[in-house]
Amino acid sequence: MTNGAWPISWDDVLRARERIAPYLTATPLRRYAALDEEIGARVLVKHDNHLPTNAFKARNAMSVISALAPDERKRGVIAATRGNHGAGLAWAGALVGVPVVICVPVGNNPEKNAAMRGFGAELIEEGRDYDEAAAIAARIAQERGLVVAHSTNDARVIAGAATITAEIIEQAAAMHERIDAMVVAVGGGSQAVGALVATRARATHIDVYGVQASGAAAIHDAWHAGEPRHYDRAQTFADGLATRSTYAMTFGALREGLRGFVKVDDAALAESVRILIRTTHNLVEGAGAAGLAGLRALRDQLAGKTVAVILSGANIDENSLRRVLNREI
Amino acid sequence: MTNGAWPISWDDVLRARERIAPYLTATPLRRYAALDEEIGARVLVKHDNHLPTNAFKARNAMSVISALAPDERKRGVIAATRGNHGAGLAWAGALVGVPVVICVPVGNNPEKNAAMRGFGAELIEEGRDYDEAAAIAARIAQERGLVVAHSTNDARVIAGAATITAEIIEQAAAMHERIDAMVVAVGGGSQAVGALVATRARATHIDVYGVQASGAAAIHDAWHAGEPRHYDRAQTFADGLATRSTYAMTFGALREGLRGFVKVDDAALAESVRILIRTTHNLVEGAGAAGLAGLRALRDQLAGKTVAVILSGANIDENSLRRVLNREI
User: What's the ipTM?
Assistant: First the structure.
């Protein structure tokens, strides 16, 4: 099914797409003249903020939930998350009738917690950060016999994320656009590895770049160093990017496939949130604006090119949004 | 085709729906547990902010543009607007190949102006307010032989707006929801008259309420007084609601059909913008949050009921959004 660095094949993507199709329609790919002018490139915006949880993670989660065996559906799933992966699982579980337990660290984004509870998930708030919440999830999974749905290290998750780029390639063709590059946010790497698998299968002319937050740059640093990294902390207002290590299922593919990998500080992420609000009038969280922030960092290389970025997620909390607009971030 | 107070028939709505279907897919109807809890009602949110111009006016505009005769298409259309109607026309015109001229008052929302120019419209900034821009549009229409596309007084516009509620009724049925009421923002009245035409034809159990901004309450006041009103000014940050008179094609139907009509001040509109951001993580302008603000004003009557509101548009400018989040509005 896979070989070498690649955790999934194009066939896995097609199968994921078929599984999630009854629940998720394709999201729009749009251009905004004001955004093009601001960036100095032809920017195609993929609106995964339109998905039911306002984030692409709905694809990943439904890809997992829809692939469960009947006895697994009955037992239920558990995951650690900072929010969007958990909201995706909670939404997908509610739709298909699978119990979902979510572990978040103490002090997690309260609006993301409310959304997960709103979809009916059991929420466990424990641990200092994502990694500690993940350890707690592993323990509870054993105690209760639940299926663990990892946010990154799961072939079904990566195949779900790859459906974004599969759609982009088809939509761009229908719009008579030839995409030169994509700049893709890397939290755990599912979105970027998904983009690599899809472009390698269907659009090899597209260069894929990765982008991480400077305060949570373990995968970025590891990519440049050529070996895995594990850091003690992650510090960024873009909670969806706040990871602190490489992941077994994505690092090899990122190493092999990415054309480049940049990092951007919180001020640059916040500026991209403001640009997207001003030019597209869509709400976006820090992680969701990272693709655009990476494009801005790569401005010299990508000036005048046609570049696709993924707008996802949108789940910024009100307080962070106010700080972004007040230029406090 | 029509009778008495009613400017359009259900057949007109079906025809508009057929005309716009190639260009606009149905927007989602969703529930948010955190919003229900905040409001104390079961709230169905219609996401017309997902449309290409982030506003329901894309329906109205495409309904007009797609109904033009071949010679009218060649001549082009002109309209006065504060923004969303003009953006809709500019978008629809660009898609179908019809030249579009838009007249806006001096000092209009700069981000809305940029969007209209971005879709390729010719923008004329002249006049103190909407009414003066409308007079300028009428003059230019004569000089150049353009078709005037009025934002409200046009049967095709109202039929386009009615497709929102036609979709809501079908989607609610598919979700096994029984809607008790809708609370609908009134700028010129196309959205509300559209809701009335659709509910009278397909869901007579739904009570439709209107809502206006206190600083632009001509139609509200006229509705309660039983006779048309024309005011000298309109003052609200919700520019999409800043009208100052009744309109010939909507007033009679609003009088006959609306179950009630409330007004809300800018502080209440701003609070609803914040609530929608916090609970749904969708951006919304003042006019787009007016349905929810009206529901909050009607809280005593509608507590515990199932109520649909339309989230549209989303084109708040960055400065107004900052003021809303800083509680300066």
Answer: 0.95
